[in-house]
Amino acid sequence: MASHKHLGSPGWTGPISQDMAGTTPKASAPRPDLPRPGPEDHLDAQGSPSSNSSMTTRELQEYWRTQKCCWKHVKLLFEITSARIEERKVSKFVMYQIVVIQTGSFDSNKAVLERRYSDFETLQKKLLKTFREEIEDVVFPKKHLIGNFTEEMISERKLALKEYLSLLYAIRCVRRSREFIDFLTRPELKEAFGCLRAGQYAKALDILTRVVPLQEKLTAHCPALLVPALCAKLVCYRDLERPAEAFAVGERALQCLQAREGHRYYTPLLDAMARLAYLLGRDFVSLQKRLEESQLRKPALRGFTLKELTVQEYLS
Length: 316
Description:
Layout: H1 57-70, E1 76-87, E2 92-102, E3 111-116, H2 117-131, H3 151-169, H4 172-175, H5 178-197, H6 201-218, H7 227-239, H8 243-256, H9 266-280, H10 285-297, H11 306-310
Antiparallel strand pairs: 1-2, 2-3
Helix pairs in contact: 5-6, 6-7, 7-8, 8-9, 9-10
């Protein structure tokens, strides 16, 4: 059986990046030539293959058949299971616990998150700017100047907020909107990426492990929206010296980018995956070939590493 040389030895022909060169890049201010961070520019509205896709006609047909199955609507159930009053130095508010469960089968990855009334209010204002006609029949729980902390008011509002989320989710364009998805995932993702920038990989990984399943259910219509979070998990696993788990999550990220060779994460992800495959004694040659093809299609003076991309996410 052929032996595998260590990275950096004469047997490794791939390009050396900061991701695996023994140095850990520090989070820095966004560079002028760095693509705008955030999930909004990952895919077009339809999530279709890029125009420079190298797939054959048969492969494209198979891709669309697979995507048609993947886009089957995932039905989610929203519950407001509890509420607690939180007091701070200058404020007092009610924090509502939201549980999100996938219906139709046992869901071992139910999501549990907390939001306050003002978070719901912000969501409503954002949705009115884009979907005023679509949500005109959706009743938003009114704000009360007094009595917000009584048991009766809290119970009433729990039911009203549950109904509000359910009605919003029933509207296709709303449940697929960035506003709705961000309401349910952005605070946790922002915290996770902040931990990643601070080098707190275990904490970041713990948060990502909890939020990614929900994000995956919400973005089934556009899998590439999941890629930054998956790549963040890869970076965490790798820097925690858990390469097998890093490689597994990287494979999921590559599946999300099928037929999307022009995606800004595609080349850095292939580079990281080729190095992990080499380290694990797996087939890195095919990954290296795809990487070289990608670099030929979209040459750059200096490519960004996967870590350099992920640390720029959710800065604001």
